[in-house]
Amino acid sequence: MASFSSIGVGLGGNVDVNGLIQASVDAVKLPITRANGLNDQNKLAEARISTFGQLQSLVSSLQLAAGRLASVTGWNAVAATSSNDKAITATAIGGTVETTFSVEVSQLAKAQVSTSASLAGNQAVGAGSLTLEIGRWDGGSFTAGDTAAVNIEIGATDTLSDIAGKINGANAGVTATIVTDVTGQRLMLRSKTTGEDAGFRMSVTDADGDMDDGAGLSRLANGLSSDPGANAGANAMARINGLFDVSSSTNTFENAIAGVTFKVTELTTAPVEITVSKDAQAVKKNIEDFVVAYNAANQALNDLTKFDSATGKGGLLQGDSAAVTLQNQLRNVVQSISSSTGPYKTLSSIGLGMIQGGDLSIDNAKLDEALKNPDAVKALFIGADGSAATVDGVAEKIKAATAQLLDTNGFFASKDKQLKATMERNAKEIARINDRADSTEALLKARYTALDTQMSKLNALNAYIAQQVETWNKQKM
């Protein structure tokens, strides 16, 4: 509130008018500022919006975890193992048929490497241009591929280091490096990718027009324009089951065996066995991840709705019926019964029991025993049909329940809308009260100003009368 320093003269100078006005304004604003008033209500609503947002994230994680158990592909996990993983490693996508095959590696993929003749270090090489082509060397002959050739202009003052920088900046499919040995400097080029089709040839055009004088830029042609021989790019070569030869431009073979990718890192002296089998551990991890996701949501709700008798304080959502309803919904669906016709109907039947506080615990011995019959465990989570066509398995029910909670018109969206509506109403009420407080302040200032003015006049009149009385009294004497 603005200061009112002039007021109080007419009132004797000892009346705290500013204090009186402020007290009145504060009284008007009391619905905003008091404990549990509109300001506190807005802060509480903001905190609850943030908290329900965090709960929404936890429920979303639970939905994802349940979704993996409700999906057929989540039960088709396979593992690929190698009898010699130092030479060959393998992976397989879910649903790949269980199989075993052998692999022998006779050649690893490599990139072409070519090096120029030695030149004096840190000196200008000569003007001209370089042309780099990507393609394939075969018997001393080069066949360019589909990639367009790249031309690079070289200035008269450019050194080998400058030339290497221009090549690296030209995106020509090669990298350039300077090699320094006892004879001088050399320009070394290497294909950016491996494989016989990723080779390269560099053609040189010397500005002096003479390519055979052993001077100028033409000197780079020696070693960089000719057949690299043993340093040419090469594909990895392997033989499957001793019968079928396969090739890859990299050391990774992706299409040789359907669903299987294997990577070679060493030449082999004996066949390496690759085995693809069901991966029970992947299924178990999906179950463990589901338990972790559910417990995270349940524990958060426990903390938010609890009352601590020792401190006398409740959680942020203590007494919030919506939060309690949410927790009960999650607990009920987790304890639902599957339509499975097998031995497992509930999560507890495979070792996932609910303990005090509502968390799930895992009896690993019981779960491992159940996973020896993976189809029965699958039926528990996906239902009697063993597919995602109906919502009759425990995981399917959890996924459906969480999807409803997370829907754009579901629990969290409605709660967010409700809390934001409360804040909007509070904001309007705060604005209305502040307007009334401003009006009160203006009215009181006007009244006190008028009163001060009138009192000043009365004080002046009083002083005049006192003076006249004193004068009369002196005259009588």
| Tally of domains | 4
* Relative helix content: 40-55%
Low-confidence stretches: none
Number of strands: 19
Separation of termini?
55 Å
Rg, please?
43 Å
Could you say which structural class the secondary elements and strand pairing correspond to? alpha+beta
Query: What form results from the Cα inertia axes?
Result: flat
Series of secondary-structure elements, N-terminal to C-terminal? HHHEEEEEEEHEEEHEEEEEHEEHEEHHHH
Beta-strand residue fraction? 15-25%
The largest beta-sheet arranges its strands as 1-15-3-11-12
| Main beta sheet | 5 strands, antiparallel
Report the average pLDDT across residues.
90
- Report the total helices: 11
For this entry, give a set of tags.
alpha+beta; 5-stranded antiparallel beta sheet; FliD_C; flat; flagellum; 477 residues; cell projection; Flagellar hook-associated protein 2; single chain; coiled coil
Helix and strand topology:
Elements: H1 17-28, H2 30-33, H3 38-70, E1 78-82, E2 88-92, E3 99-107, E4 113-115, E5 128-138, E6 141-144, E7 150-154, H4 160-169, E8 174-181, E9 184-191, E10 199-206, H5 221-224, E11 236-240, E12 244-248, E13 252-257, E14 260-264, E15 272-278, H6 280-305, E16 307-308, E17 313-314, H7 321-334, E18 352-354, E19 360-362, H8 364-370, H9 374-382, H10 394-406, H11 411-476
Helix pairs in contact: 1-11, 3-6, 3-10, 3-11, 6-7, 7-10
